[in-house]
């Protein structure tokens, strides 16, 4: 296993640690998870794009890695948080399925699943902008590897996605999960 990332703490009102206004701990304030946050499996979490109000919550997860699925670069606040927490980021620049012209790239999903199935990257947060469609496709493809029924996969997908399901469900259904190669030595126990 990799050694855990080096972390420091910014605590508001502390004399011995700088009080960073971006990612500081705020004792007494409620922890706020990102939009559409959920645990996918032990050590794997999904959500929409985190913001400043979510940093204390994310810190409690002890993340090692973030996988980000969007065309946009991270805003400066998120970049600061990632650097401060010593997180590794895998940024997959992809748009969601938009029929009939834009489809998810199966090779990128395969690569992301290979990294997701490596416990050396856990705990990991996977997110897109709203935590609905791109992440729903990734999780749906993961569920195929876990041998879930298609009915169960689509039920879970719809819990997060609301509308726009046909192209994504088609992608999940036709995704060849046998192309995802991972090291059994580092595969998660839940696989």
List its salient traits.
globular, 32% helix, 6 helices, 5-stranded mixed β-sheet, alpha/beta, single chain, 191 residues
Overview of the molecule:
The structure is a single chain. The chain has 6 helices and 5 strands, in the order ββαβαβαβααα. The chain is of the alpha/beta class and 191 residues long. It is globular, with a radius of gyration of 17 Å. The chain has a 5-stranded mixed β-sheet with strand order 1-2-5-3-4, covered by helices on one side. Helix content is 32%, strand content 12%. Strand 3, helix 2 and strand 4 (88-92) form a beta-alpha-beta unit. Helix 4 (133-145) runs antiparallel to helix 5 (150-161) and helix 4 packs parallel to helix 6 (166-174).
Number of strands: 5
What is the makeup of the main sheet? Answer: 5 strands, mixed
Straight-line distance between termini:
18 Å
Radius of gyration from the alpha-carbon trace, in angstroms: 17 Å
- Proportion of beta-strand residues: 5-15%
The helical percent reads 25-40%
What is the overall pLDDT average? 86
- Low-confidence runs: 9-18
Give me the side-by-side strand order of the main sheet.
1-2-5-3-4
SSE topology string: EEHEHEHEHHH
- Silhouette: globular
Summarize the structure.
The chain is of the alpha/beta class and 191 residues long.
Write the layout of secondary structure elements.
Elements: E1 38-41, E2 44-47, H1 55-61, E3 65-69, H2 76-85, E4 88-92, H3 106-116, E5 124-127, H4 133-145, H5 150-161, H6 166-174
Parallel strand pairs: 2-5, 3-4, 3-5
Antiparallel strand pairs: 1-2
Helix pairs in contact: 4-5, 4-6
């Amino acid at each position: 296993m990799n050694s855990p990332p080096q972390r420091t703490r910014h605590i508001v009102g502390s004399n011995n640690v700088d009080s960073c206004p971006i990612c500081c701990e705020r004792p007494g304030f409620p922890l706020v998870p990102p939009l559409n946050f959920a645990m996918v499996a032990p050590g794997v979490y999904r959500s929409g794009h985190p913001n400043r109000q979510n940093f204390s919550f994310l810190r409690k997860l002890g993340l090692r890695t973030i996988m980000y699925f969007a065309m946009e670069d991270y805003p400066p606040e998120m970049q600061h948080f990632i650097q401060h927490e010593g997180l590794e980021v895998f940024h997959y620049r992809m748009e969601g399925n938009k029929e009939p012209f834009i489809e998810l790239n199966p090779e990128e999903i395969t690569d992301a699943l290979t990294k997701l199935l490596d416990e050396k990257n856990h705990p990991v947060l996977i997110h897109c902008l709203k935590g609905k469609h791109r992440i729903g496709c990734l999780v749906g493809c993961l569920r195929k590897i876990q041998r879930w029924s298609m009915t169960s996969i689509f039920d879970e997908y719809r819990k997060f996605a609301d509308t726009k399901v046909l192209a994504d469900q088609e992608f999940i259904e036709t995704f060849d999960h046998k192309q995802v190669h991972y090291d059994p030595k580092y595969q998660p126990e839940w696989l």
